[in-house]
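Two entries, shown back to back:
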Amino acid sequence: MPFVELFWEGSFNSNASGRISMQMIPNGCLELIIHLNDLHCDLNKDSKWSQSPDYMILGLFTQAHEVQFGNHVQVFAIRFKPEGIFNIFGVPASLLKDRFEDMSLVLGSQFRDFSHRVRKEKCVSAMIDRSERYLLKTLNKNSIDISYVNLAAELIRNTKGIRIEELSSRVFIGKRQLEREFKDKVGISPKHYLRIIRINEVVRLLDNNKTLDLTKVAYHCGYFDQAHFINDFKRITGRKPTIFIKERGQFLVHPGLSNYTH
């Protein structure tokens, strides 16, 4: 499915053992969350805590943000590449930066009907099949915009050490124009997006092998300066790498699946 990174199903606070609080790490994507029961997580919006809507879109977050679970919460989710929301639904990711919204209010009755039907499915594979049919039908109604923003975002996801100057030349557009269009559609600059993707790759590698050397991991992910790596890591996760590793259980992390290459 174009513009979708993956589908996933999750269960949180499954023992319902009191209220738990976790920090969600930005992964460079947008998440469409369909709650499968009437018990939802709580999120902070405009300095107020409230229960998340039945069908929620989590925008492209740039820093770690808190989520609380007071009960057993079950969800089915669709993870969109940031340029994908615009191509499928005509909604620029920039409008959803660092926030969440009720997706049924954004997209209306046809989306609500689709979400209701997903909730009634008996297994995850059926949810995925229904989602793919709905998304392809919606996508086919729109003209696919294979723009240089799309190409630049894909290059960033697949190339860990690309320089922004090189990025603009690879998509045959000026650096300033690329930055302007990227911010308009994605909500952040290509450089900022690259930071998020790199740090997610660091976390993915650490999750897969707890004994990896941090310096080697940082180098593998395109960092040649340890100070820049530590600053980026703290800016996105809220913790220094060594502290993050010790407190790993306090974080919700869903790194992307991009296959990094040189």
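entry 2 starts here
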Amino acid sequence: MERVKVTAAVFEESARPLRNPNRGFYYIYQFHITDQETDYNDLVERFYYGDTETTLALVQINLKEYRAQEISPAGLKNIDALFNALAQRDKQLIVRFLYDWEQKNLLTEPASLDLILQHMEQLGEILNRYSDSIFTLQGLFVGDWGEMHSTRYESPQELRRLAQKLAEITGGYLSVRTPAQWRQITEDGADTALVARLGLFNDGILGSETDLGTYGVGGLEDQRRSRAEELAFQETLCCGVPNGGEVVIENPFNDFENAVRDLSAMHITYLNRAYDQEVMDKWAAKVMQSGCFQGVDGLSYIERHLGYRLLISGVKAEWKAFRNQIIVKVFLRNEGFAPVYVEPEMTIALRGADGSLAGEYLVRYGGLRELSGGTDSEKKVTLQAAISGKGLAQGHYNLYLTLEDPASGQNILLANTQDIGPYGYCLGGMEVYR
């Protein structure tokens, strides 16, 4: 009978940057769609040149050429070619369709709501074809810069029709500009199908007490609530759906400590790296004084906490002789501002000293998103696997954990001091004796 000795690895938190999908800083890339044939592979290559640090890109697609008509076959062909070119690169997409870049939306958006709905319908096939590349869709096509203000279509009924159509023709996350609009569109949470998919984007984050009109100043102005109420609303809502945008206008609300507190409560997953540079510079001047982030500047600290930042807080591995199994438990925490919104594929494997696979277990655990991060970063979940010891030869074996993003196939990197190896993160080793 086998005799087995199992040794679990010890894990510590690190301050290292993690290039993980669906979180972090982004840059904006703008594309004006016309009927003119365009080499989008070349255009995207030139746009992305030099952007090697980010895993997200905000792609703004201007449809004002079709404000009086349906999108032409040539226009649809160009949009398809654009998404095809974007899908060849290593960035997930935040996608915003709009009709205005110059704060002249009332002159450039379609005069008929039905035409906007038709544009959405026309785009459905393309958006579904490239759904693996799209993290979230921002906005409902309308408003200055696509931000859902300064539009003729701003009643709850009109916004609801637009959101329901966009949800009907796509399958992923959507986001709207303000919590008040979210409540209007979902009928304050009654539309459960939209509730599960509808997040927020905010291009006035920390810009003032109201985030430049995103919130109210008390009472119910157009259903906008006070800052404290809306932060509490987002703290609950964005445990399940993404939130991100731009930080603007240097002021006390975006002083470093205030920013970390509110970004954490909002569960912010992504921010524009290029705007507002004065705020970014203010954060960069801050130097952390304690913990594993001691000596790290504040801008880097915030970047490393955008979205999820998973780490192993402990491992327990035991040999159960009567079952002939190795029972492995991995305890995970999330130090980031926000959850993992796309559940990764997780595997615990047993490999010989030469790397040969001796046993593998796909962890079918749907609860990783319970790690909401932000103000609840101390919460833990447990991944558990039972690896069979049947037929194991004498010798040394190692246990490994891998987490993989299902859309990109990219490994999810963990915020521990241990490096990821060719087989994943080593959880410990075991010796088999006779």
